[in-house]
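fyi for ur records
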Amino acid sequence: MSQNHTVQARPRRLTASASLLRKPLQLAIATWVEDLEDRKLFAGYGDDNHRLSPPPPPVINIAPPIALVQVGTLTNVSASDGSFTDKVRVTWTAAANADHYRIYRSTQNNLSSARSIGGSDGTTYDDNSAARGTTYYYWVQGLRGSRSTGPLSQSDAGSRALPTPVAPTIGSLLTDPTSVIAGNYRFVTLRVDGVKDPNGLPVSVSFYQETNGIPGLQVGSDTKIQNGNFGDNGFRTYVQTKNLPIGINTFYAQATDTSPNDPPS
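which gave:
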């Protein structure tokens, strides 16, 4: 059994440039052909006799791939050991083809625990966030642009220098009242003013009473009253008068900061 397949051509006259003509100075006709059974559309260019020619193929420009530049391994990573009180300085020898560097740090000599702490365009980096009394391990990696990275360097340990040991200072030790009549007062206030620490560390104050008969504070043999409480007017504590012998009583105050290397005042 035969099947009819009808194709209807619908010519449309359009103005076109001479480059589209099949004959010189002949009007080009863009012809749409509709397949009435499959409902498909075909397009092409033709002359007055409606002969179709395929449209020109699309032009796609494909750029060649960008070649990655290999970044070399940097060497001679060195972290300062107590050379600076305010930082750890990390230096290294430049890696081939690197234009900047990334620095990693950890408190353990274990790369898996290291974290990036900054970058440098040169071969020096100052770690100003390093804490006093802590040893850090550093790694450096060379990079080129945003695409090429070199291998990580070997680690090197460094630390900040501890400040020169300096004792905190005490301005004055005051008693209130300065004299007591037995039975009239239950407490005497001891107060320390002007406590300062040259390194800005926290300070505590201890009060002592001279009980060994030797002038000057003898921590090992003089009686420690208690640690002072810090308030708006400095450090203070209280002494019960009933425990004081009649006569002159001598008291001392000693200030200590939180550094194990600083002597007490």
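The chain has a mean pLDDT of 76. thats all i got for now
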